[in-house]
Amino acid sequence: MKKLLVALVLCLIPALAGASTVVLTWNPNTDANLAGYKVYYANTNVQPFTGSGAVQGASGKVSVLKGTNTATLSGLDPTKPYFMAVTAYNTAGQESIYSNVVNIPILPVQITGVTSADSKGTITISWPPVATAQSYNLYWSKSTGVTITNGTKVAGVVSPYTLSNLADGTAYYFIVTGVNGVAEGFPSAEMTDTTPIAPNPVINLNCVCTPQ
Length: 212
Prior knowledge:
about 210 residues; mainly beta; Immunoglobulin-like; 2 domains; about 0% helix; rod-shaped
């Protein structure tokens, strides 16, 4: 059987708390007697992969039929790394060797409990630490809908972090992510705070002095 043509591309999609979903895609095999594909995974890069825990089944038990070149694994533990590969099998039950191996690193846990406090020209943002993060990134914008792609990034921040030199009476939006050296976690929920407007200064101060 011809070796499986592969260029696996994957993405991680946030799912229910405590679970992760991985979507794998690959170049289709063109063998005339192709029957389908099998997905293998494990928490270590030691073959054969004998992992378990995915909703769709244990390693090697997840299969898709000919004509489909994508597979989804859900219910994975986001606190563990995963190594994944795909094989092709034909109508006689013969199976190809593993494709290239794709590594899904541990993602930092999504940060919750972000708070803020404002004063003239500043907003101080605080968040609780997460065990899987080694550092944190802050993204901010003057428009709602801030993301890691459209926000102004401040890398390597620590909590609490103060944004300074801000305009008075202006709403600012921000998110925080955890970083563990190999991956950036899912961003926190968007938060917003508005800097206060300082009172107008007193003008035309006069003094009427009475000698003592």
